[in-house]
Amino acid sequence: MDQLMVSASQQLLIGEALKYAAHNAPNQEAFVYENQRLTYREILKNAEHLAGWLQAQGIGKNDKVGCLFKNGMSFVELYFAVSLVGGVFVPVNFRLVSKEIEYIVNNADIKILFVEEEFNNTISPILDLLQHVQVIVVDGSINENHKKELVTYTSIFIATSVYTPPTDLQDADAHAIIYTSGTTGKPKGAVLTHKNFYLNAMNRTFHSQTPRGINELVVPPLFHVAALSRLVSNCLMEGTIYIQREFQPEQILKTIETEKINAMFLVPSMWNFLFQVPNLQDYDVSTMISCGLGGAICPVDIKKRIMEVFKNGKIIEAFGQTEMSPSTTYLTGEDTIRKTASVGKPAINVRVRIVDDEMNDVPTGEVGEIVYQGPTLMKEYYKNPEATKEAFKGGWFHSGDLVRMDEEGYIYVVDRKKDMVISGGENIYPKEIEEVLYSHPDILEAAVVGVPDAEWGESIKAFIVMKPGRHLTAEEVIEYCKQNLASYKKPKLVEFIDALPRNASGKVLKIELREENSKSSIH
């Protein structure tokens, strides 16, 4: 038995990361949410209590536990509790509608589902359709009576609980299933292991040169892997994470000032909206030393604005995707100025190739698909062997991202493979046009897609969100593009909209923009 416990401690397990922090820095504040401030010792105690309750419900290795939570302390406690028992954590996007949630919960074989009171009405219509769910735990009050057993989250901590550490857990075992955005078809569940998460956290602390005890503000939803992975790196650096429930730009600035925040990660759209706060310059943001970027391709103009506003902060840009846990490349330090348009170089244990459709390496400077190998690569798509086989074709994981590499080894994202437009035989990359549109002083946001064209096959359409009080005509937008791009790349159509459709991770849902135009074509 003693030897088994020693073997468990030798694994790269997420529960062990929390234990190390609680052992080395027990009184250090670990997580702060509203009026709750828990030390590493306290968060471990709560997680172990919850883990004991999960074990009493029959949850062990490979059993799936899901949650429909917004950001908060309950999310953190549950995440570590599931890790401690060897279960598989399945965070569900709370912005989904009932039928979408039903699909994920059933597809993932979730046995216990934790739900915030706020989502009682979302869950009610599908409660009796959740095939494998045995218990629903509500964080708040219960207002429904169904066949499922319903308990409250607080009642778990009132009852006695005994946690027994599993001795058969390996770091190659499944740790979490994160469902991809589902921008095309049904979402796929990427099965990520303990080792995947652990090494991604180590990569991040290495490349960002994160100092010990750093104060970090986490704003994006924790069900997204980029935010969730920060719970692990926080333990490794014995820092303090300040959790914001939802994206509120002014509250972000207030928290930076009052809590002396040193680091923050936002997706590009969040940075953009942060810069629209009218009295932005009135807040003291001098403690910020690390400005994290990722989750979507970032326009260069937003990077420049970050450097202007957060003068003491360096940009730490991470590029990647869910299936890679998620970061694959990093751009840091002086490179953020010298190579602003780049997403940096590969992470220390991520192997990268840039290939054509036949898996041949493309010459330096030419566009190809970036493919990956390495210990942060997912195990598989859950219960989807066909998609897994396709993704791992040729022994490398196919990202779907089109990139090029310069002579110094820096990688530049050209576009998503599926977003590329072919017009009159010419390859056109919407990202290039979007960069130009973002540089216009009156444009807040822009997205470019291909639309059917009877003559050219496809043509370019730009969707524009204007800054408040600003106005442009379609002709002015097209002319601006013509002045900054080859003529064949300029949009033929321009539509002004109030907001771009986005998924919860901040990515623009171009499939929705395309669908609006699929029934009509240019003649």
TrEMBL record:
Domain AMP-binding enzyme C-terminal: 432-507
Name of a matching Pfam family: AMP-binding_C
InterPro entries: AMP-bd_C, AMP-bd_C_sf, AMP-binding_CS, AMP-dep_synth/lig_dom, ANL_N_sf, ATP-dep_AMP-bd_enzyme
Xref: Gene3D superfamilies: 3.30.300.30, N-terminal domain of ligase-like
MF (Gene Ontology): acid-thiol ligase activity
CDD domains: FACL_FadD13-like (cd17631)
Keywords associated with the record: Ligase
Domain annotation AMP-dependent synthetase/ligase: ranges: 20-382
Highest taxon of the lineage: Bacteria
NCBIfam families noted in UniProt: PRK06187.1
Family designation: Belongs to the ATP-dependent AMP-binding enzyme family.
Protein's recorded name: Long-chain fatty acid--CoA ligase
Organism: Neobacillus rhizophilus
Lineage, uppermost ranks: Bacteria, Bacillati, Bacillota, Bacilli, Bacillales
